[in-house]
Specification:
Layout (H helix, E strand, L loop, with lengths): L3 E2 L2 E2 L4 E5 L9 E4 L21 E5 L6 E10 L8 E3 L1 E3 L10 E9 L5 E9 L10 E6 L2 E9 L14 H4 L24 H16 L39 H7 L5 H8 L12
Parallel strand pairs: 3-8
Antiparallel strand pairs: 1-2, 3-5, 4-5, 6-9, 7-9, 10-12, 11-12
């Protein structure tokens, strides 16, 4: 597999054992042939129905990269910060334990160099240029190549933009109407209009003299006037509707509660008493 993918150098993110292509995890590359043309099947004995292969992945979905690979014997303790590679094998299949492959992984944003590629050879005398010797394991030689890699460029997730937000685009600004304070003259014979006019005059005194944006309110430029239907006349009527006083309301809706009082005074018959006649 080429180290260059669309102009970027991708690091190795995981290494594992796999029985065959069917058990090989998704996004993993199975090393089935060595660089010198031999079958890269790590078969332990002829009695086994299937062996196992080395595979690796360059998918950055997990956010981790492989920074180093080592081959250790069963008598050696695993180095600090390393872990044994995963095993994706068929039932009743096991990996040779006399020598183990372990890797060191780190977050992709914490390192600048990582393992870029791994290869196998069947002959220990064969040398691979630009690759580092890792170790011998069950008749094969493991090689790796380290170097700088290209960090993934974060892709912006598409978002659904409503029509209202699109209309606020800065690419096509719409012409803004100037904000100008407007105080229309009060309506004649209107007490509320006179009160409104006085409030407008007081607000104008509080505004800055330079008519800056800070002195403009949301009500500036909006004329205020009462609908003729609700204009209060001097005779105290609202569109020929007489305003009633408290005495008028009490006289019109007077209620003496006599019916309730009579019902409360009635003697209710007691049950259980019968005539002896």
């Amino acid at each position: 597999m080429s180290l260059m993918d669309h102009g970027t150098v991708r690091p190795v993110t995981a290494v594992a054992w796999s029985s065959n292509s069917s058990t090989c995890p998704r996004d993993f590359v199975l090393i089935s042939i060595t660089e010198d043309g031999a079958v890269a099947n790590f078969t332990r004995s002829f009695a086994m129905k299937s062996g196992y292969y080395l595979c690796y992945s360059k998918a950055l979905t997990g956010g981790m990269v492989v920074t180093d690979i080592q081959v250790i014997s069963e008598k050696d303790s695993i180095p600090h910060g390393y872990c044994y590679i995963a095993e994706h094998l068929e039932p009743k299949t096991s990996v040779w334990k006399k020598k183990r492959v372990c890797v060191r992984i780190a977050p992709v944003g914490s390192v600048e160099t990582a393992v870029l590629d791994i290869k196998l050879t069947a002959k220990s005398k064969m040398m691979l240029q630009h690759y580092t010797y890792v170790g011998d394991i069950h008749g094969y030689v493991l090689w790796c190549r380290k170097g700088h890699f290209s960090s993934p460029v974060p892709q912006a997730k598409p978002r659904s933009v409503s029509l209202d937000v699109r209309s606020l685009s800065l690419e096509q600004p719409s012409a803004l109407l100037p904000l100008r304070p407007s105080n229309p003259p009060p309506l004649p014979n209107s007490r509320l209009s006179n009160r409104r006019s006085s409030l407008h005059s007081k607000d104008n005194l509080d505004k800055p003299a330079d008519s800056s944006i800070q002195g403009i309110t949301a009500l500036d430029g909006v004329p205020f006037s009462l609908h003729p239907k609700f204009d209060i006349q001097e005779n105290g009527t609202l569109n020929n509707i007489r305003i009633k006083s408290l005495r008028d309301i009490e006289n019109e809706y007077s209620y003496t509660f006599a019916v309730e009082e009579y019902a409360a005074k009635r003697i209710r018959p007691t049950g259980g008493a019968t005539s002896s006649q």
